[in-house]
What we know:
mainly alpha; transmembrane
Amino acid sequence: MSDPVARPMKFPYTFSAKVAQFPIQHYFKNQWIWRYYFIAFGVSIPLFYKIHKLANSPGNQAKWAESKRKEHEEHH
């Protein structure tokens, strides 16, 4: 990549200048959300997998189909 700008603009007019001057490293170091985002993601994956397996089990699908069949009979 090119060398960093020696003297930044007083006010970055263009979007690329704003992106170049944005202190992203400061936010990564000092905000709690970035630290806990990946931890929460890792913890939630097994939970969502378990919910998915329970919701799509054959017994639950049969119960859901029966519920929909009864609902359909009431309306027609």
